[in-house]
Amino acid sequence: MTDIRAAVAGERADLASLLSGLSAEDWDKPTLCKGWRVRETVAHITMPFRLSMPRFVLGLLQARGNLDRFADRYARRTAAELSAAELTECLRQNLNHPWKPPGGGYQGALSHDVIHGLDITVALGIDRVVPPDRMRLILDDVKPRQLKYFGVDLSGVQLRATDLDWTHGTGTPLTGSAQDLLLVLCGRTLPAGHLSGPAAARFTVGVTR
């Protein structure tokens, strides 16, 4: 438990440091999350730190129980209300926040922060490498329900990491760094140059969610 909590705090600290160095123009650039700029994505990352359970339930009800719709509305509203500095400071002040996604545990919290951090860095062309020990914690926790949630069809495809001893599935090879393959698992389509192998074209179509 200590190791995973330290990994979560470390990831948030690294991301806060990276965000503090972005230009004003960068904050308005798109990420791998369709329709979200950097500021909406950071608003989403920090949502659990600002939102009480009653407000969350109310927002979910207003979104007719659709979590994605609620998250989108909240991210857009918060991004309009808070500055880049305020969003970054919110992350920095909550490095050790105990939030866990329902049913996801602290591995889920780490996945949440790493994935959305990659949504930002990959889209901006920032060559940031997530520490291998954090990637291992996430990849070792991959479950079929996660693929179902993101609507990912990996039938006939085997993911092969080039920087970790890790594979997923069977079939036509799709190779890339562990963090790029994590994005594939989460339904992201990556910019050219991140993936290779016969199946690469299926997952390389610009920036989208």
Automatic annotation (TrEMBL):
GO MF annotation list: metal ion binding
Pfam families hit by this protein: MDMPI_N
Superkingdom field: Bacteria
Parts of the chain that traverse the membrane: none
Signal peptide: none
Stretches assigned to the Mycothiol-dependent maleylpyruvate isomerase metal-binding domain: 10-92
Matching NCBIfam families: maleylpyruvate isomerase family mycothiol-dependent enzyme
Name of this chain's protein: Uncharacterized protein (TIGR03083 family)
Organism, as annotated: Kribbella antiqua
